[in-house]
Amino acid sequence: MRQDFGLTAIDERDSAPLVTEFLHVGGGEDARKIAVRRRIGATPGVLWLGGFKSDMAGTKAIALDRWAAVHRRNCVRFDYSGHGESGGKFTAGTISRWLDESIAVFDAYCEGPQVLVGSSMGGWLALLLARELRRREPPRSPASLTALVLIAPAVDFTEELMWKRFPAAVKRQLESNGVWERPSQYSAEPYPITAALIEDGRRHLLLGGLIETACPVRILQGGADPDVPWHHAVELVSRLAHDDVVLSLIKDGDHRLSRPEDIERLITAVAEFCCCRSIEVL
Questions:
Q1: Which residues are catalytic?
Q2: At the topology level of CATH, where does 3-155+209-271 sit?
Q3: What is the reported pTM?
């Protein structure tokens, strides 16, 4: 892996310019450039892991970065391949591929204690990243894990929230064509769901046993979430072996949890582990 620097990007409402860096991951035909924005500051730092078809310029990611800027806190955001400013095709994406990129960004850009903040698919990837760090003997990264903050965590979503819910006709199309164009309420364009995404996801399923994180976990879940139902979060909590797990159910919350009051809850959850009690988000 190697790093280079791209254009300077200024997020909407963000007072400080951030340089978009590119981390080179993979080799040969599998090589892709991962766009990263890093705010240098104190630790514990924050690593943002976004959702499926989301990018680091989303409402929650920007709010987290702005909070980090106010409190001089280290904050790293990035786009998975096929997302946002990163290279690669979205249809080439799998959980394995996006996990490799998450690990690469963690190793290259994070130092000292870190809070992983994962939204939707990013919640699943945060748990998989935590598992990878636990398996390392000895540790190979200059960074360590302090806590997980998960927003509507879509753990095992390729199996539990997609495949098992797909009607027979969709399953046949995936098996015969390798892809299905799924309509989305979040985009005018459908989301291409590939057979490779479904099949690869089975290599990373977590809900079949206990999940060891070795750190506290905070979960924010919308009670009115149509994509990741609240009982999915309850199932996740039952699988987490660590005692320090708190599930906050926002009764009228949707999947995105991007309203001002939701952002305040997110910042409060992160600040708990960053020795900073202020929830000012500007």
A1: 120, 225, 255
A2: Rossmann fold (3.40.50)
A3: 0.92
